[in-house]
Amino acid sequence: MWTYIAYGLSFIFFAALTLRYRLEVKEEQFIHTIQVFGFSLLKRTIHANDIEKITIIYLGKKTIILLHLKKKLRIKLQRFSPEGIDQQMIQFAEANNIEVENPN
């Protein structure tokens, strides 16, 4: 039994090492993908007309982006966002007439 637990923990550890997050900003949509072992686990597409506003919060070197959707949901992009994503979000918002809070 302990052998199976050890194998299970090893598998979970290896899967965590290969976990990748990818965020693509396109003209009228965002594509957020979570991959393990190179396979997509979750792929979420968010269209510009679904976004009510974007909030950008700067905390030192850290940037937190909140997407407020019209369905009263909020998506937080914080830990795994690529460099310069705040500028891409501002350009995306301007191109699609979306309100931006705190665009410092």
Task: Describe this entry's structure for a reader.
The structure is a single chain. The protein has 104 residues and is of the alpha+beta class. The protein has a single domain (1-101), classed as Roll (PH-domain like). Helices cover 26% and strands 45% of the residues. It has helices at 2-17, 85-95; strands at residues 20-25, 29-36, 39-47, 51-59, 62-69, 74-77, 99-101. The strands form two sheets. The protein has a four-stranded mixed beta sheet with strand order 6-5-4-7, with helices on one face. The protein has a three-stranded antiparallel beta sheet with strand order 1-2-3. The radius of gyration is 17 Å and the shape is elongated. The chain starts with a helix and ends with a strand. The mean pLDDT is 84.
Briefly summarize what is shown.
The protein is of the alpha+beta class and 104 residues long.
Q: What characteristic shape results from the CA principal axes? A: elongated
Low-confidence stretches: none
Distance between the termini: 56 Å
Order of strands, main sheet, comes to 6-5-4-7
Q: How much helicity do the residues have?
A: 25-40%
Treating each run of at least 4 consecutive H or I residues as one helix, how many helices?
2
- CATH fold category name: PH-domain like
Structural class determined from secondary elements? alpha+beta
The name of the CATH architecture is Roll
Radius of gyration: 17 Å
The figure for the number of domains is 1
Beta-strand level of the residues, as a percent range?
Answer: over 45%
Largest sheet data: 4 strands, mixed
**Fourth-tier CATH superfamily name:** Pleckstrin-homology domain (PH domain)/Phosphotyrosine-binding domain (PTB)
> Tally of extended strands?
7
- The CATH class: Mainly Beta
